[in-house]
Design a protein that fits this description.
Radius of gyration: 20 Å
Structural class: alpha/beta
Helix content: 25-40%
Order of helices and strands: EHEHEHEHEHEHEHEEEEEEEHH
Largest sheet: 8 strands, mixed
Number of helices: 9
Shape: globular
Strand order of the largest sheet: 8-9-10-7-11-12-13-14
Distance between the termini: 29 Å
């Protein structure tokens, strides 16, 4: 192990963490050192499958491990805030799964704590680092579709209502917006930039008060607009697009980890010219790219990513929270026994 190797501790051995653990060996400069769960058996099983050196039966034990350089927080949403703060207090760099927190106030608290401690902090919005999305960003910046006017993205699945399922459980921060909506809202924000000037929301709520679906109109102050849609009731196609004065870029399903994009330029007659398909698949399952970003930033002495800056995370959380409030839902940040 090189002296610049980043030793990761994973908090939460769930499905997403398993995908991330499979990708970590493909990264440049990261290894899985430890995993923690409130069940030691689960932690040991995860460590055995993914090659972690140490398994812990509590989150606090992992955070106290001096050999852990960075912590990946992959627990249910309402635990993100408390675990991230504890990791920062322990002097660890943090990569926090989306949704970053359950509230804007909680997100700001984590961001302030990381800044005060001088540690790296980033939301694990892997979409920003997918090669096809990187290529889309390059084309937009180069003016390939002119001035951006509108952006849209959707993501949904049909999940029968079950109040005991994590996706429907308010105690775990369930609901369409925090689990799925964060993707299309983040896509819109990444293209339009900045914060929304105004937000219009429509949606429905499940019998236990969890949001089942939501449609959000993002209004920018200069007249540009974005549309983000999410649902636990409908298997939305999962497509996205950025539309400009000189054409548009289509991101096929599922847009949050695509293997290609399609550029639709405007021809000399002002009509759409034949599209150009640009293939740029992710490496492995796709999580490696966000780990590479963390490692690159740490090597450069950065405390946040220029590609996924913390201001963007706050802007996304503001829109998600406005969507929840418009539907009559108010979450808080959960307490966690470390």
């Amino acid at each position: 192990m090189g002296r610049d190797t980043i030793r990761w501790g994973f908090v939460g051995p769930g499905r997403i963490a398993a995908g991330a653990a499979q990708s970590l060996p493909l990264s440049d400069g990261g290894v899985l050192h430890a995993v923690a769960s409130r069940s030691l058996d689960r932690a040991q099983a995860f460590a055995g499958t993914h090659g972690a050196t140490v398994a812990y039966g509590s989150y606090g034990a992992l955070l106290a491990d001096p050999d852990v350089d960075a912590v990946y927080v992959a627990t249910p949403h309402r635990q993100h805030h408390a675990i991230a703060l504890a990791a920062i207090e322990a002097g660890k760099h943090v990569l926090v799964e989306k949704a970053f927190t359950c509230t804007v106030a909680g997100a700001r608290e984590v961001v302030r704590a990381a800044a005060d401690a001088g540690v790296f902090c980033m939301e694990a919005m892997w979409t920003r680092f997918q090669p096809a999305i990187v290529r889309m960003r390059e084309l937009i910046d180069a003016g390939a579709i002119g001035e951006i006017r509108t952006v849209r993205a959707d993501l949904g699945l049909r999940k029968p209502f079950d109040p005991n399922d994590r996706l429907w459980d308010p105690a775990q921060g369930g609901g369409a917006l925090l689990d799925l909506g964060v993707y299309p809202v983040s896509f819109v924000q990444s293209v339009l930039g900045g914060a929304a000037d105004a937000v219009d929301v429509a949606g429905t709520v499940a019998p236990n008060g969890v949001d089942a679906e939501a449609s959000i109109l993002w209004r920018a102050g200069d007249g540009r607009a974005g549309f983000a849609q999410c649902s636990l009731r409908s298997p939305l196609p999962g497509v996205a697009g950025a539309f400009g004065t000189e054409g548009w870029i289509e991101v096929p399903a599922r847009f949050h980890h695509p293997g290609a994009i399609r550029l639709h330029p405007v021809g000399g007659d002002g009509r759409a010219a034949p599209p150009q398909t640009i293939t740029a698949p992710p490496v492995g399952a796709g999580y490696v790219h966000e780990f590479d970003e963390v490692h690159r930033c740490l090597a450069a002495g950065l405390t946040e990513s220029p590609t996924m800056p913390l201001d963007d995370t706050i802007a996304v959380m503001q829109v998600v929270e406005q969507g929840l409030h418009a539907l009559g839902i108010r979450y808080d940040e959960g307490a966690v026994a470390l």
